[in-house]
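Bug #77: duplicate submission created two jobs. Keeping one. Sequence:
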Amino acid sequence: MSQQQLRSEPRFEGEVAAAYPIALLESVRSHDRPGEVLEDEQFAESLPRRLGLTGIVETQIRRYEDARRAGRQVQLDEVAGLIRLVLRRPDADAILREAGQRAARWHCRNSPRWWQRLSLRLPAAVALRSARRATVRALSALRAGTSIQGTRPMTITVHDCMTAIMPEGRACALFTGLVEEMLLLNTGFAHPVSHSRCIRNGYEFCEWSA
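Kept job's structure:
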C-alpha cells in the first residue's frame, strides 16, 4: 500500500466493546463452511473468503473473548480494520448484515429480562419508541458517528457515519442489520429497513428508516 493510500485511510478514535469484533468474526465463520468448497475451486482465489475455515479467526475470537471477560475494550480503528478485510469478500454485505444483527442481540442481552419480556407486550407506538431509543444507544456504543438521532416512527440518522466514510464503501450493511434486529427484539415483529440516505450518495448524513 502506498503512502498516499495510507494517508487517505481515515482513522477512527475511541474504544468499543469487544463484543463488536466478536460479532464480525463469528459472522465470517458462519459464512465459511467446508461443504461450500467446490472441487474445481481455485484455492488462491477463494482463500480471502474462506478465512473462517482457518485457525486465524478462532484465535482472534478467543483473544476478543478474553478481553470481553476482563472488561477491556478494543480500539475502534482495529474494528474498522476487520470491516475492511470483510469488504474484500464478494459476500461482504451478507456478513456485515449478520454481524450487525449479532451486535444488536448482544446489546439487548444487557437489558433486564423483565424489560425484554415487557417490551414485547407494549402497544406498537410505545414499542417503536423503545426500539428507536435502544438503536440510538447501540449505535452510540459502537461510535457509529458524531451525532446519532432517532425520530418517529422509526428513522435513525447518523452524521459522519464510520461505515460510509470508509474508502471501500458498502459497509453500511452492518448498521442495516443492527437496526433490523433491534426492531425485531423490541417489537417482536420483523420490519423491512431501508438505508434511505447515505453519505456516499451525496447526503449530509446516513439514514435508516422502517
